[in-house]
Amino acid sequence: MSKKATQYPISKRPIGVFDSGVGGLSVLQALRRELPHEDFVYLADSGHAPYGERDDAFIIQRARAITRYLLQGQPPIQALVIACNTATAAAIHLLRQEHPGLPVVGVEPALKPAVAASRTQRIGVMATRGTLASQKFNALLAKFDGQAEFICQPCDGLADAIEHANESKLIALSAYYIRAIGQFGLKSGEVDTLVLGCTHYPFARAQLQALLPAGVQIIDNGEPVARQTRRVLPQAASAEHTGQMRLYSTGNPQLLAQAAQRWLGLACAVQTLML
């Protein structure tokens, strides 16, 4: 831990959250519900998005740079949440090795709760190519071998459509990928559960739900990540403290400001970073 970090009591330091763009706001939303008294710093790496179509070396470089920046803040972060499935798969093991004193929480597609929820044992998974191709995801998939059939669908362009609030593209891509997964429904042989394996995708939940038969469940990972963050937090903030928020973007700050207002009801200024 740096000398600068020791100058700030742990309970006074924020939780850092980062994603390739605005999608991690879905995780931030869950975190704020679970930890309303904590301060948060959210960094959208929109200037280098989308991660899901980048190679591991690039994602690792970005994750390292962002983590260093957040640890050098005033005050520095006390914990880090990687609110991106692709970045978690590529970089979380390295960040934990390089920063052993920093609790690091990642996200992964919610396959376990999907298996528990499914009755037909046919489960659709929507994710980026980077996530689906990762060793971490395939190891996770192997844990449930024989328990369910997973239809894994790479969703090129969907996160970008959500990022830029392109409604027509979002609807078209949602319909295309739902058709590609196959027949949804509650009967034997049909897909009755859909896993959203990218943190952007919960913000397309309404559009996706409208395309699915009644009773088909949609599952994401925001709440489990929030609960895990509470468990590993070194020291909770005072219950009398009102949690504060800082927003940063390496891309267009208006995209993040508008998304935070639209989805979280946050009216926050966004600082642009050259990082």
Automatic annotation (TrEMBL):
Keyword Isomerase among record annotations: yes
Annotated substrate binding sites: D19, S20, Y51, G52, N85, T86, T199, H200
Record-level GO BP terms: cell wall organization; peptidoglycan biosynthetic process; regulation of cell shape
Active site: C84 (proton donor/acceptor), C198 (proton donor/acceptor)
Molecular function as annotated in GO: glutamate racemase activity
Record keywords: Cell shape, Cell wall biogenesis/degradation, Isomerase, Peptidoglycan synthesis
Domain of life (superkingdom): Bacteria
Reaction equation(s) it catalyzes: L-glutamate = D-glutamate
Keyword Ribosomal protein among record annotations: no
EC number annotated for this UniProt entry: 5.1.1.3
Pathway annotation: Cell wall biogenesis; peptidoglycan biosynthesis
EC category: isomerase
InterPro entries membership: Asp/Glu/hydantoin_racemase, Asp/Glu_race, Asp/Glu_racemase_AS_1, Glu_race
A matching Pfam family: Asp_Glu_race
Family (UniProt): Belongs to the aspartate/glutamate racemases family.
Function (record text): Provides the (R)-glutamate required for cell wall biosynthesis.
Descriptive protein name: Glutamate racemase
Organism: Rhodoferax antarcticus ANT.BR
Gene name for this UniProt entry: murI
